[in-house]
Amino acid sequence: MDFLEEPIPGVGTYDDFNTIDWVREKSRDRDRHREITNKSKESTWALIHSVSDAFSGWLLMLLIGLLSGSLAGLIDISAHWMTDLKEGICTGGFWFNHEHCCWNSEHVTFEERDKCPEWNSWSQLIISTDEGAFAYIVNYFMYVLWALLFAFLAVSLVKVFAPYACGSGIPEIKTILSVFIIRGYLGKWTLVIKTITLVLAVSSGLSLGKEGPLVHVACCCGNILCHCFNKYGKNEAKRREVLSAAAAAGVSVAFGAPIGGVLFSLEEVSYYFPLKTLWRSFFAALVAAFTLRSINPFGNSRLVLFYVEFHTPWHLFELVPFILLGIFGGLWGALFIRTNIAWCRKRKTTQLGKYPVIEVLVVTAITAILAFPNEYTRMSTSELISELFNDCGLLDSSKLCDYENRFNTSKGGELPDRPAGVGVYSAMWQLALTLILKIVITIFTFGMKIPSGLFIPSMAVGAIAGRLLGVGMEQLAYYHQEWTVFNSWCSQGADCITPGLYAMVGAAACLGGVTRMTVSLVVIMFELTGGLEYIVPLMAAAMTSKWVADALGREGIYDAHIRLNGYPFLEAKEEFAHKTLAMDVMKPRRNDPLLTVLTQDSMTVEDVETIISETTYSGFPVVVSRESQRLVGFVLRRDLIISIENARKKQDGVVSTSIIYFTEHSPPLPPYTPPTLKLRNILDLSPFTVTDLTPMEIVVDIFRKLGLRQCLVTHNGRLLGIITKKDVLKHIAQMANQDPDSILFN
């Protein structure tokens, strides 16, 4: 009796923290597709089923885009309201944030559009005045109190309900897309808690952003919706194609950049990105951006808070300061990665990691206490970036636009370069202090047990540095117009330098230095600003920052966190240049015990169960006999356990002495012997093999490009050993003089 003619629940699935067999999953999907295509010619119903199967991918993308866009809109609106709640409340309707509260007011002037009687600070509500030292102390106290409350709620919810909801999620998503299993990481509880705690974490005023976690949220949406379609829910390889598209939708709603989102998924996150996935990613990103635009979370018909438009052309000489910003971005990126990884390692290896709630509250308290006195640290980081990107116009009341001769416009209607006023000098000092605080506090914030993105803090650091340099260049051009570098292109009374453009280039440089993104980064920044003419400055800064950061350390922040956590991620960008052979890496080594194998027709159920209980291997090679060691196939441990348990329950007479056959036909049995157990259906008859003299650079390439979990080593057809993905990663680490034991999972 071959009880395996019926599919057994659980066979072909994987344990937690294990690598999937990509080749087997793709083969399964091809078989399924072939069967549906063949049946479609038999009846109308089968044809309809075939068409719906082909269409299901596009329907899934539509649902992912709609859900991601809706959640992003909800997060944006909630975070905006709760951020303003730290400073006061709208008496005309507590659900209005500061800006919306004053929109409907009849007692507001354009110059003081953020001041209206409907909006009350906490000192006005508690002691009925907004003037004096005591009112300042009350506002200060309430700001810190709200920040601590939001942070405490965020870390408590993560700790109790969904530990996987912390961090940005991008390192783990990269690992999952590289054919690894982390159960629950993209589950419904993680989605619910991450959405709630992301709002709380951003509102607490910590130096973090919501853009990275939005990628995690979108991938959770993709993973959950996959279960509505058997084609994707039951095939790990197909599901990863969906997750690549979901990551694109996440970046699309984070920055309002659909094309940038697709390129981000391709360049930074995805391991396998066929043309079909490119089209579907584009569609998912489009739907997500359209949904967010329909919700209009900021009330300005834009998808992000810091959308800007520049119209002043840049000049060739300005490439020098742009490249300087690129160098700064690269230096900041390398410094941040080293210090943040050192701090995270300290958190993992000391008592500090046991007290996540206290750590979050201490960092929040320090951030809030230092942030309140400075208006640029008190405002949300997105608002700060918006202010720094802004090009000063006639109606701007910001201190950054407090120039002398403000209303002396040039002929073209553009504001000319002008001498800086008292407000600009004051703003420069405050921004310099903000820069120092952001640089230091972000190191300790990223990696805490709350949702925390890195895009916005990195952009803020770069935008501040860029604005400082931009104002410096503007004043230099104004006071020293006779210098050769200026007089050829900058005439008296012209608008030569745009400080907001420098802020934008600085933001791109710092983000590139930390993440090592290039193409997707430039496209995201271009979509943010809508200015095609600024692509060259952005490209120059992005490439410079990448070169400088790569010279000081090869890894981006996400790859560094993957290595810190010991995930089995095989980096596709790195070349393997060592002259080792497969026999140098395979297990067993010389003088090691022999490789544990199963024979095709001579082992009993008891023998196999003993091997399973005494070893922890994920699978076993099957050979003709122990003497010949001729390879037959490979069987997974999980499939063996499930099949034997199922046979004991459903097949009469299977006992410990029953012989297991992996052959196609079992020989006739003598009378009174227990029935045999045929397990050929769970045997992989085409395991990937290499010879013992295969160079390791070829083996590494095979693992990368085929997504293998293991590879068998033979010599003249005889089985010698096995190489797993973990063995390959350990060997690469050893060759790079790193600790091979840092690879924790297979």
TrEMBL record:
This is Chloride channel protein. The chain crosses the membrane at residues 55-75, 133-155, 161-182, 189-208, 242-266, 278-296, 316-337, 357-374, 427-447, 454-473, 501-526. It comes from Homo sapiens. It comes from the Eukaryota. Residues 586-650, 682-742 form the CBS domain. SUPFAM superfamilies: CBS-domain pair, Clc chloride channel. Proton-coupled chloride transporter. Functions as antiport system and exchanges chloride ions against protons. Important for normal acidification of the endosome lumen. May play an important role in renal tubular function. The CLC channel family contains both chloride channels and proton-coupled anion transporters that exchange chloride or another anion for protons. The absence of conserved gating glutamate residues is typical for family members that function as channels. It is a multi-pass membrane protein. Belongs to the chloride channel (TC 2.A.49) family. ClC-5/CLCN5 subfamily.
